[in-house]
Design brief:
With 564 residues, the protein is of the alpha+beta class. Helix 2 packs parallel to helix 6 (161-175).
Length: 564
Amino acid sequence: MDVLATVLNYTWLKYAVLPLWILLMILLLHRDLSRWDGLMGPLSHLGLGENGTASYLSVPTSEFVAYTQGWQRFAYNAWLAEKIPLRRSLPDFRDPRCLNFSYDEDSDGMRPASIILIYRNEQLVVLLRTLHSLVDRTPKHLYAELILVDDHSDTDFWNEPLSVTFFDTYVRRYIHPAARILHMQKPVGLIKARILACNEAKADNLVFVDAQVEFTKGWLSPLLSTISEQSLTLATPVLDKLDEQTLAYHRSIERRGVYDWSLRRREVPLSKARRILLPNPYEVAAVRTSVFAIRALWFQDLSNFDKELQGFGGAELELSFKVWRSGGRIVQVPCSRVGHLEPKDQSYLKRYGDLGKMGQQVSRNLKRIVELWIDNPVLKSEIYKYQPQLLNVSVGDLSESRKLYQQYDCQSFQSFVSEVMPELKQIKPKDRSDYATGYVKSLEFPKSCLSINAGSKFITLEPCSANNTLKNWTLTYINDLRVGANICAEVQLNFKLGYDFCHGLGGRQSWHYDAVNNHLVSNTRCLELGEKLNIFLSLCNKSNRKQRWLLDNQNPSVMLSENT
C-alpha cells in the first residue's frame, strides 16, 4: 500500500474526529490547490467579476451560517475568501511612468533578498493566496530564500499536527522547494519572531511580509533598488486595500505617515512639492511594516535597542524611531504596490492570543518606547496627557537600552519632529476627555439601564435605581465602554453583548455614539434591544427605535469633534 493510500485509509478510520480541512489537505499530496476554483467548489452560483472577486454577494441560505461564522472568526468575509481562486489576476495600479524606470538588478545593492513571512492562526486560503501571489509575481533571481515563521499557531486547522504536516508539504511542492518553515514551540510575538528569522536568514537584504497581503507585478525591484542607493534605508511599498467584504483590490492614494500627540499613526496628504515628484519615492516619518525591505546587518543592529519588547504592540512606532534617529531613513516607494487586507474590526487580533494579555504587553511596550526615545521632558509630559493610562505602567529595566542610545548618539526627539515630522506642529491634539458618563438607557424603556449581570456573564437591561455601580458607564476617549476601571462592554459570540477585562486594542470593545441617530455602534453594527429584552448587535437601521439609546452626561464638544 503506497503512502497516499495509507493516509487515506487512516483518515477514513478517523473520519468521526478529523475535521473537514484535514480531508482537504490530504489532497495536497497529489493536487495543486491553486488550480481549484475555490476550496468549497465551483463559483457558478456566484459568478466571477473583475479581478477574481464575486460579481455579487448573494449568500445561499444553506451557507449563511458559514458566512456568519467566518466574519466572527476572522473579522472579514472569510466565506468568500474560500470561493475565490488561490491564483487570481490583480490590476496593475502603478503610475504608467513607473514602466519607464529601470533598475540595475546586477548591482551589489540588488543582491537577492531573504523573504520572511510570519503568521499565526491565519485562514488557510488567505495565507496560500499570499504565498502564490508572492512566488508568481516575484522574479526568482530577486530572492534567495523563503522563510516562514509559524508563531505557534494553535487553533482550527493549525491545531492538528497532520494538517500542519500537509501544509508544509504543499508549500515545498507548490510554493518553494527549499522553503524553510520554522514552527515555534510557544508564541514569541511579532517583534521577536522577526529578530529570530533575521538571525536565520542568509541573504544580505531582508524583505518582511505579512500573511494577509497580495503582491502585484513589479513590486520587489523598486524596493531593493531603493535600499541599494543608501544602505541605511528602510523601504516600503504603497499598501493598496483589499476590501474586507468583497476582497476586491482598490488603489490607495499616496499619503505620508506621521504620528500624532498620542503616538498613533496618522496619514496626511503629500505636500505639493512631493506630489510633483511622484512616482519617485518619498520619505515618511511613520513606517507601516506589512511589507518592508531593509539591509540584514542593519536590521540585526537595530534589533539590539530593546530586547524586552513583547508581542506586537508598538512595533511600528519603535522601528520608526530607531531608523530615523540612528541616522537612517524610511522611504515609501509608489512604483511598488501591494494589496493589504486589514479588517476595520480589530477583533481579528485575537488570532495572535488573548487580547487582555496583549493589551498589557502593548501598554508596557509603549511605556518603554516613550521612556527611551522621548528625551524632551516637556514633549514627554505632553504625550502622557494623551496616554495617561501609561503613567502607572511598570517600565522594567531600560539601562542596557539607554547605553546603546548613548552610543549611537541618537538624534533628539525635538530634532526628529522639526526635521522629519514637522506636521506634528500643525496637528491639533485630540481632546482626551471622555464622551459620556453615567446611565445608558433604552429609548423604549427610559427607566431601565444597561447593567453588568455577573451571573449570566452578559449585559442586561435592569431598573436604573438599584446597584448603581454596575450601571455607571463611561464612553471613554479611547472608544471603549467601561464600568469602573477595567471592565468593558464587548461584542461576543453570535453578536450578544457581554463584557470582559478592558484591553485597549479596540476590536469588539470598540464603541462610538452616533448622537444624530442615538446609536451605540461597535464597528459596523448597532446595539439593539430584543423582544425578550435581550441585547445584541445588528445592522444599523435609522428607523428602528429599539436601536436608540440615551447616554447621560454627554460632553457635547467632544461629541461634535468626533462626528465632524
